[in-house]
Design goal:
By secondary structure, this protein is mostly helical. It has helices at residues 6-36, 41-44, 52-58, 60-74, 88-93, 95-125, 140-159, 167-171, 178-189, 194-220. The protein has one domain. Helix content is 71%, strand content 0%.
Length: 221
């Protein structure tokens, strides 16, 4: 596919819309579960919402600039980030609730992935995905649902890696006692592990994710 061809522009548009919606769902889920657990920090910032504007306002580079740049510079890949604020005092007081808050984001991604699987299977069964009769281009709906599946599988899996600052590093606290979780928080919040964690996560993810994707494709399709 040539650079800036109509096909690439269409894929880029769909990918960004899916990224924006998926990331908004991810952060809104964090905010909602935090609110249910007693921390209203993100809710007061308007982030218990599927409106992407409050999330973009908090992370404009990660939700707008970097995803678009990454798509065009890489020739098709799209990455970015966002965040939901929380009260660190609440996290330390209720570490297991904070663990559930952390897991809510990946759970939202996997939910979107499963919904895409159901829609793709239903669409195939009902013969809804027809190629464009003149150009032979694949179905717009089929492409969109495929991107919803693949992007949310990637986002959910990556964020579950148990290294700071990813969600999995806090999510594992749901398996700990309150006292153990508080000691664990002292270690991961008291040191600057974020950059090292991201580098480790990227290295591990590049090795592991192809197998995760292969298993998901075999399991669902």
């Amino acid at each position: 596919m040539n650079a800036l061809s109509p096909e690439m522009l269409m894929i880029g548009f769909i990918s960004y819309m899916v990224f924006l919606f998926s990331t908004t769902c991810h952060e809104a889920s964090h905010a909602l579960v935090a609110q249910l657990g007693g921390d209203t920090t993100a809710a007061l910032g308007g982030q218990v919402s599927l409106n992407p504007i409050p999330h973009i306002r908090r992370s404009p580079f990660g939700m707008v600039v970097f995803p678009l740049l990454s798509f065009f510079l890489s020739g098709g890949g799209m990455i970015g980030w966002a965040s939901a604020p929380y009260d660190p005092v609440w996290e330390r007081r209720h570490p297991r609730r904070a663990g559930w808050m952390a897991l809510a984001g990946p759970a939202a991604n996997f939910t979107l992935m499963f919904l895409a699987v159901l829609a793709l299977r239903a669409g195939r069964y009902l013969h809804l995905f027809h190629r464009e009769p003149v150009t032979g281009a694949p179905s717009f709906l089929g492409i969109a649902l495929s991107i919803v599946f693949s992007l949310n599988l990637l986002l959910g899996t990556f964020n579950l890696l148990p290294v700071p600052p990813l969600d999995g590093s806090a999510g594992i606290m749901v398996l700990m006692s309150e006292r153990t979780a508080q000691s664990y928080l002292d270690k991961i919040r008291g040191s600057n592990y974020a950059l090292a964690g991201i580098l480790v996560a990227l290295y591990v993810f590049r090795s592991v994710y192809p197998y995760v994707e292969a298993v998901a494709m075999r399991l669902f399709f």
